[in-house]
Design brief:
This protein is an all-alpha fold. Helix content is 76%, strand content 0%. α1 runs antiparallel to α10, α3 packs antiparallel against α8 and α6 runs antiparallel to α13.
Length: 291
């Protein structure tokens, strides 16, 4: 389990680094380009799988759900990338991490699934942690944070669709269809507003893609070695990595209330993940930049 935990911590560090690269590159590269390249690199990694399964890769009976998962995921990614450029990296990362707490609420309405009292308590505690972290009573609540919560809601919706798809589709096919559709759809605005990049910016875009792909691969490896109930709480380490990166690069302060809020959310996440052992609604772990 130690090795799995280390893999997951490295994955979350990569996701935080991906967000940092988005924040850094956004000053010179349109968000449409960044979202496209984020999805394009993920699709490139899947090409060997596509070649190997070329006879059956496109077979599906759930095309509408795949499209719904893609649209909600892309919309959440566009919003999250915008929020990253407007607020401290740790704040944007933390709000997106609310997605796992929103999933049971969507499932409660959509699938009529039971949500136990412990999970409701974890959800409430998670939202309390965000409130403490953001500390809106001290300096107001930036309007852009509403977009961050919307991004978290869209990410939660996308992951709820994944739960629905998993009843008939393999994980590799779900990932393939999202990568394929998201690459095609996000390429459209890029073609319309194409901007030539210097070789330095190309290196930055490639580095962003490498971090994102490394994070996805190592996260998958971690959860193949240990169950979410054992190591899933480490997914919340991304906010700590984001805070550290934000402090070192942009001088973003990490205050006491941010530390306390993070601790509350980690505790809430631990409560929710432990519930995965029961037949109630399960909360899937997720990478920060992967709505």
């Amino acid at each position: 389990m130690i090795a799995a935990s280390l893999f997951l911590l490295f994955a979350e560090l990569c996701f935080a680094a991906t967000s940092a690269m988005v924040k850094y590159l956004a000053a010179d590269i349109p968000s449409t380009h960044l979202v496209f390249f984020r999805n394009f690199f993920a699709f490139v990694v899947l090409l060997p799988w596509l070649y190997k399964r070329r006879a059956t890769a496109f077979r599906t009976t759930q095309l509408k759900l795949h499209l719904l998962r893609t649209v909600t995921g892309i919309a959440g990614m566009y919003l999250f990338f915008y929020v990253i450029t407007q607020v401290a990296l740790a704040k944007a990362t933390l709000v997106l991490l609310m997605a796992p707490f929103i999933i049971p609420i969507i499932s409660w309405f959509w699938f009529k699934e039971r949500v136990g009292p412990i999970l409701w308590a974890a959800i409430g505690l998670g939202f309390l942690g965000v409130l403490v972290f953001l500390n809106p009573f001290a300096g107001g609540f930036p309007a852009v944070m509403a977009l961050a919560f919307l991004a978290a809601g869209l990410a939660a919706w996308a992951k709820t669709v994944i739960r629905k798809l998993s009843a008939t589709e393999s994980p590799s096919k779900i990932v393939f269809y999202f990568s394929f559709f998201s690459t095609v759809l996000t390429a459209i605005p890029v073609l319309v507003t194409w901007q030539w990049l210097s070789w330095q910016l190309w290196l930055g875009v490639m580095l962003m893609g490498v971090f994102a792909v490394l994070g996805q691969l190592t996260m998958t490896r971690a959860f193949s070695m240990a169950s979410p109930s054992q190591i899933g709480v480490f997914t919340y380490s991304s906010v700590l990595f984001a805070a550290l990166i934000g402090y070192l690069i942009w001088g973003e302060a990490f205050t006491v209330h941010m530390f306390v809020g993070s601790a509350i959310i980690i505790a809430a996440g631990y409560m929710a993940i432990r519930q995965n052992r029961s037949p109630a609604i399960k909360i899937p772990p997720s990478g920060t930049t992967n709505p």
